[in-house]
# Entry
Amino acid sequence: MAGATKTTAEAFDMKAFSPESFKEGYEKFAEGMSSFADFHKESLNALMASAGAFAKGVEKLTAENASFSKSAFEETVATAKAASAAKTLQEAIELNSDFMKTSVEKNLGQINKVADIWASTTKDAVEPLTERYSALVEKIQAYRP
# Structure
């Protein structure tokens, strides 16, 4: 109990609260807050870069899908006109079969394009956030004993 009493007495020793110790503590606090603000500013910039990369990816995907849809519609109309102008039923069936075969191939190709665009968009959007996460881990590691 004597140790606890001594510690309590030391804790309330007003000689320890000097202007120099207060100034030192305040400077450490201000430095920490400045570092905190800088870190969060950089994190916000990374978030904005990530959102920008995502928006560009969505824009690219939208343009690709619009182009593909327009092309597919035009091919469908052209095939329908050709099939309606066919002289025999056999000729119309062959036109339709060829159209279906090429449509399936083009759709599979489009699926691959869309998957590539999404993969690229995801990579570009996540990269700035990954860098900030790494910086956070480094900061945490720096404070470990």
